[in-house]
Please model this.
Amino acid sequence: MNSLRVNARVIRALGMRSIRQTFRRPQLMAPILVFPTLLLAVQTGGAGGAVDLPGFPPVQGFLQFMLAGAMMQSLMLAGNSGGIAFAVDIEMGFTDRLFAAPVPRYTIVLGRLAGVAALGFLSAVWFFAIGLAFGAEVHSGVAGVLIAVFLVTATATAVGGIGAAIALRTGSASVVQGLFPLVLVVLFLSSAFFPVDLMVQPAKAIAEYNPFSFIVEGVRTPIIAEVDATDLLEALLAIAGIVVLGLVLSARALRHRLRTG
Amino acid sequence: MPAIAVERLERAFGDVLAVRGVDLEVDEGEIYGFLGPNGAGKTTTVRMLTTLLLPTAGRATVAGHDVVAEARAVRASIGVALQEAALDPLMTGRELIRLQATLQGLPTAEGRRRADDLLERVDLIAAADRRVGGYSGGMKRRLDLAAALVHEPRVLFLDEPTTGLDPVSRKTIWEEVRALNDEGTTVFLTTQYLEEADQLADNVAIIDQGRIVAEGTPDALKAEIGNPHVQLQLADGSVDAAERVLAEIGKLLPPSDGRTVLVEVENGAADIPRVVRALDDAGVGVEALELVRPTLDDVFVATTGHHLEKKQVPTTSSAPANA
Model:
């Protein structure tokens, strides 16, 4: 029990460090809030007429539709930034300081993920604040907000797990940073910025099976309509899949790093 | 029980054997110098002893715990300051020490108290709330050392703690290492500086190409090389006369030029008056005289065939390897 408490304190302390690190390094903060906010403004201002297209889901306005996409972009870049920061720690030897401490080594990865989760939470709150400030409504009310915030936070943690795994495997911040465009490709090939039904092939086929489409719909549905149990369950399953993938990859990468130094 | 015991420790990276069957033993409370050039295997050995890297053969115990089977117990007993202080430039000094205290499982209040004490001890209290990125090299090393001490470890590993530091900062670190050792901490210190090993270490192991080539106290290692010698700079034309006189005092060593005579003396400085008197009686004028003692570099040369340091400091110069 005592060791559990110590481990929890370590995860919290490392999570706090991770958050401070992000706020003190503007190049990590910019992709998480600034870029998605700008993209949201540009898309909402420039493509607002899309809501009149036949087949577009019934929404109050394009901003309401886009909130989930902006949150997804933000959380994925938060996960990527978490991976970059972890890789920087490896490059400068800071992780050696952590690995030389008498705590289970998974706590070090979980500490980093705790920081990413907090940034995911911040991102969800930020975009809800912007949405509400500019007149978007959350159709399912407070319950919808809580569900969306939970899904965004959980997804950020899951994506952070993949970022941490790549950081541990490569030990190179530039490699993790190189995944930045891939994040955008994954997002554009999902329902984050456009309804799947209005896409053309092959993007439509990819988006239909892209796990991030399921998560986006899980976040979006309570904003534009009533909470839908199927959408919620599919989103949770998609998140669970990414969590498992991140955990397996992180555990393997951690073992590899400790074996090879 | 030794603080550190290592038996036939090996580490391979692919086909390259970085550490080749290292055996060593470090007693409780001693400063053990691990001396060798870059790439000799010092850091790889330290990384295995601090559980950051798995050995590929052999075994080692630190503070009585096996570095592979009881890695977490090892980590609870040691403090580690690795090469090129691995500090987050975005953290403040105080944040770093408090984080280290949490990592070591100290309760919050105790961690805060220890952080303040240690920052005071390493003279960083005034800079404690500044970001580490603005610290000088010496300040970073002192902070790194303080972080390694937060849980009062039994064994402290310092991997090249003064590399790249100016002489004043280096001396400050030496004083702190001595003080820690006086308090009972066992120190395992890797260095590529002869003077550092000579000044600080109770025992020294010299490692080259992954193997330990010599081990013992600095004095014993130097004594194995031979006696000290007196180096005399003479007036022109008096070398032959000086050599005739000095041959009766000690063994003459090959001179480096036509105006210098080297004579081995068994009793070191105590033999200098005898040398001076003999030359004076023979009417040989001496322009300069210096007692040259064997150095750890001489030990290194004798055991490996090459110098450890490319540039020698003047007081430790040029005793022949076979002197």
Remarks:
- Chain A has one domain: 2-47+58-260.
- The longest helix of chain A spans residues 229-260.
- Chain A touches chain B through 27 residues (CB under 8 Å).
